[in-house]
Fold:
Amino acid sequence: MELPIYLDNNATTPLDPRVLEAMLPYFTTKFGNAASRNHAFGWVAEEGVDYAREQAAKLIGCTEKEIIFTSGATEADNLGIKGVFEMYQDKGNHIITATTEHKAVLDTCKHLEKLGAKVTYLSVKEDGLIDLAELEAAMTEQTILVTIMYGNNEIGVVQPIKEISAIAHKFGALFMTDATQAVGKIPVDVNADGIDLLAFSAHKMYGPKGVGVLYVRRKNPRVKVTAQMDGGGHERGMRSGTLNVPGIVGLGKACELCRLEMESEAARLSALRDKLESALTVMEESYVNGNTQHRLPHVANISFKYVEGEGLMMAMKDLAVSSGSACTSASLEPSYVLKSLGLSDDLAHSSIRFGLGRFTTEEEIDYAIENTKKAVNHLRDLSPLWEMFKEGIDLSKIEWAEH
Amino acid sequence: MAYSEKVMEHYTNPRNVGTLDKNSKSVGTGLVGAPECGDVMRLQIEVDENNVITDAKFKTFGCGSAIASSSLATEWLKGKTVDEAMTIDNMDIVEELALPPVKIHCSVLAEDAIKSAINDYRVKNGMEPIALPKSHH
Structure:
């Protein structure tokens, strides 16, 4: 076992060596521009792209023509939301999303508000799921788009996508989902789920960075988005720019591997995740954040009360994890996702996200358990709050000097 | 952002962790920060009849730099007179631990904790608390 151990697979994943192997020729001998129609170099590159398009389409149950390659999920989110807003502005200007979305969605919506969009930000319940009745109540005749993420990047909860899309469609709105954390990890089927637009990225599923997909439905209904970048009219006019052929080939291979290995991998990872979670929550005052039934198999977000996340991560120095706490003068605010769940600031500051992945072993999880327990105990020995808790002092009754 | 060696050293081997009897007349306690801000420091000093700090203890909830700042503060306090302790400036801590700009607030908190412990001691012993400038963060 090599140290440090990587447990931050929701931030990014390592490239699978099989993906790298598929990509390599497209950097050297097969370097052509996929848009070069009149010679073999172009044709070979185009073949690679076409094959990747098939591989991606198969993973999410759509046709190749519905796959638009982008530079990643952030661009796909931008293109989907801004593109729909522009294309359907005659129909209405109302967009519905949720407070726990990724910044690529939230900030895009905020941008559109300046351009005349009306945006509803649904709050979530304590377990991180949206309230369907609240969604339905927010729908109006002006609603053109509902965009709700598939699986959350911080806590891993999976939203009731089928029910959400049904509500959107009932009111004649389109349904989009940022599925960056879900695609390749759990079954995602655009038809069964009623998805009109979907964004994902290769680097969260053992593919390369810098390449992603926007799925745009072509039938029932035929969805159109206004291009956000002008140029050569690539990707059916929706996304101009010379295709990143090696990246796209890598994305395709990554999709294929995920499709073939998903079932066994999800079972393996959720077993490891459960082992990690149950071993850590036997410690006093440790809590799992988010719904534990409807969630991704590879994420555990745990709050260790009375220790601060960043300080804790320092003690877990052989583990690469992430925390909902950011102790910098630039950002003293803890995770907005955890706060949306109604977590108090101090619990949000005490959270650690463990993101397991394809290359995580049981030996590593065993090590992580021991290492984390030791770190939490060390930090609690240093914590005045832990001491006060142990003395039975109610911390909420203390007048803290806010700073 | 990587931590400096000195921060790592104090963090890994914190000095003077612990608790003094807060009800003792010779002990001053400073509790500063707030859980919702992500850092709380408790710093205690024990003062003898010559106004010399004979012992200092801390406990801190916070990031590594906050823990290191308070650990360093207790180290500096021991053996100083109360008047000398009042002159410890947060920038001395910043310099000693090579704290980056985003962590300066940790040193400010440590300075606040020292002054608040001294004031607690003063009030307990019938002296006027020293007026403190409003916390600068």
The two ends of chain A are 43 Å apart (CA to CA). Chain A touches chain B through 30 residues (CB under 8 Å). Chain A has twelve helices and 13 strands.
